[in-house]
């Protein structure tokens, strides 16, 4: 591997859930200042959500697709091999450029592929500076588009990836405060059942493809068990009595 410039920087940039207008000014500046912008894909022929967003601010010739096993959970060896290969590719880019940005949907510190890349680069290129630029999350965007209030007063907020299983979601729904579920599309039927069993379905809302042409935002009560897009988001607001400042 070529020697990496001592001043090389890797910046994880959160580009939001899909609406290009939700990329922060700082995020846009970081993308435009980078020599190249890496976007994660499952195969080299794919234009993923991150790339579609970045293209609003950066020309295609400065974008580099790097393959990650984005949805791989069962084949540990395949996932590790993909992460290693992706790390090697980004290390090569750091050897050739002063600044490499990595565009990730949502926020780079919230269930992001960037976390694993940063760890790998820390081992391969220990002198590289790794930074992040926060991004708007899907739960924030869904709350804004649906009118759901995430938290009031002293309410807690629990974020659950349903890839951990619907039992984890049910435990959270039995607790206090608002519950947000990520990546629940494949288990939509189990999620609906958990909401009904815990009495939380009435005010809950789900959304997918937020800010894009295929956007769908619906009451959770309409969930019929059919699979939804993998990157679906659910908000089950805290139980409230409707009084202003009731949770202060």
Write a brief caption for the model:
By secondary structure, the protein is α/β, with parallel strands linked by helices.
Main features:
248 residues, alpha/beta, 7 helices
Explain what you see:
The termini are far apart. This protein is an alpha/beta fold. Helix 6 links the parallel strand 6 (about 155-160) and strand 7. The radius of gyration is 19 Å and the shape is elongated. The chain has helices at about 25-35, 50-55, 75-95, 115-125, 140-145, 165-175, 190-195; strands spanning about 10-15, 35-40, 65, 100-105, 130-135, 155-160, 180, 205-210, 215-220, 235. The model has no long low-confidence stretch (mean pLDDT about 90). The longest helix has 21 residues, at about 75-95. The chain has a five-stranded parallel sheet, sandwiched between helices. It has a five-stranded mixed sheet with strand order 6-7-10-8-9, sandwiched between helices.
């Amino acid at each position: 591997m070529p020697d990496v410039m001592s001043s090389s920087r890797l910046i994880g940039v959160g580009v939001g859930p899909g609406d290009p207008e939700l990329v922060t000014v700082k995020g846009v500046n970081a993308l435009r200042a980078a020599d190249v912008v890496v976007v994660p894909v499952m195969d080299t022929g794919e234009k993923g959500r991150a790339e579609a967003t970045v293209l609003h601010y950066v020309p295609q010739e400065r974008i580099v697709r790097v393959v990650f096993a984005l949805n791989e959970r069962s084949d540990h060896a395949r996932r590790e091999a993909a992460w290693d290969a992706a790390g090697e590719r980004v290390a090569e880019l750091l050897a050739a450029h002063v600044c490499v940005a990595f565009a990730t949907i949502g926020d780079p510190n919230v269930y992001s592929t960037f976390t694993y890349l940063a760890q790998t680069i820390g081992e391969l290129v220990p002198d590289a500076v790794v930074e992040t630029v926060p991004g708007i999350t899907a739960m924030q965007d869904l709350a804004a588009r649906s009118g759901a209030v995430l938290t009031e007063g002293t309410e807690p907020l629990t974020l659950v990836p349903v890839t951990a299983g619907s039992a984890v979601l049910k435990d959270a729904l039995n607790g206090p405060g608002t519950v947000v579920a990520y990546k629940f599309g494949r288990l939509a039927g189990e999620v609906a059942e958990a909401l009904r069993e815990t009495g939380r379905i009435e005010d809950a809302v789900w959304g997918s493809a937020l800010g894009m042409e295929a956007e769908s935002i619906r009451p959770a009560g309409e969930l019929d068990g059919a699979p939804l897009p993998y990157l679906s988001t659910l908000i089950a607001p805290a139980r409230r009595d409707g009084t202003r400042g009731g949770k202060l």
